[in-house]
Task: structure prediction
Amino acid sequence: MKKPEPLLAMLMAAALGGCSLAPAYQAPPTPPAQAYRNVGPWVAAQPSDQLPRESWWRLYGDPQLDALQTRLLANNADLAAALAHYQQAQAFAAQARAGLFPQVGAFGDGARQRQSDHAPPARNPSAPADYNAYTVGAQASYEVDLWGRVRNSVEAGRDNALAAQADLASAQLSLQAALSDSYMQLRGLDQQIALLQQTIQAYEKALKLTQTLHGGGIVSGLDVSRAQTQLSDARSQWSQTLGQRALMQDTIAVLVGENAASFSLPARTESIPVPVVPLDVPSTLLQRRPDVAAAERRVAAANADIGVARAAWFPSLTLNAQAGYQSTGWANLLTTGNRIWALGPTLALDLFDGGYRKATIQAAKAKTDEAGASYRGVVLSAFQQVQDNLALLDHLGTASANQKDAADAAQHALDLSMSQYKHGAVSYLDVVQAQTVALQEKRGLLDLDTQRLRASVQLIRVLGGGWSAEQLAQK
Result:
């Protein structure tokens, strides 16, 4: 028989040159942000600064945070689920890509059959009514992609897989930022606990002083009661802060995939520097954000689905080929006389579907509009988040400087009041007021430092997890 390979090659070439019914894709337009407000006392990152996304948290220079991030990547359950979702999307894309190639299969069957005496056309009376039938062979089919249905399905599958890949990166970035944020809060609580411990020690000395003066008849018992009240209140704050630290430690345990009951982190009070961040950020830098990339790829996938839906209005052309052997017995099945084959195209077109194809196209267009609106929303939200965190860092920096001055002044006032109290120049009520203000101002300064660190973490997250000198130069 004539070999079908030339005809198959010709049809495959025609498929590759076929048309596509999907609209020409363009990403939805979004308003750019060339500059941001609140570029104040902060220093922009120097061109030599490099911060890869894969290890952006190293900018804080904390080995314990580095170790926790490594454990998060290895053990976090949410990250493992996001990875599995991406692997599913890859498999779906591979399924769609299989449509670009011929489908080849093999078959074989054997049966004992009886033919009706009155089956049309009339059976030859001399032929047996009962007989055996054995068949073996192979078959192949190939859809000629004249209208781009298969190619658009492949493109949609690929874009969805890329979106899932970006979702995985987004989940990883969000979890890394959540861990860094929780870690900054934990270290802030450690500093608060250390401050309260120092305060408790100072209040214990103050209580002993009032008790000594009271024993000598110099001061009344009211001073002793006030000193005891201050000490008890400080101890209460210390216990409350310990409880907050325990809850934050449990949060970190879940993030790194550990059992909270057996997880612990040693207290550390060293200050973590607030990293230098680029304030004059170009809008193109936000394109690194994985959630922006995922939203854009979903628009592209929805656009390709329009082409798939439109192709249903046109006939589908499939080339079918089959070859094998057929006989009434196994003995001489694979002989030349028992050969069978069939080769030919199949053309199929739905003439009436009750509006199904029209509705499918409308649904595909609406899905594209939905994806486009979501993409614009994600981009606008990204610009807002960058602006918010830049403004927050700017104002917190100013507030921290003022708060430090207030804390220094409050400590100076406390020192003066204690000195005057020892000499009988003021009452212990003045000391109590000075102690209360000094503790509040110091705790406020520590809280502002923690807020600044948390804001820097969020800024790096909304910038896509770091930047490079090349990206900062694209202004």
In short: The chain is about 60% helix and 10% strand. Confidence is low (pLDDT under 50) at residues 7-17, 39-51.
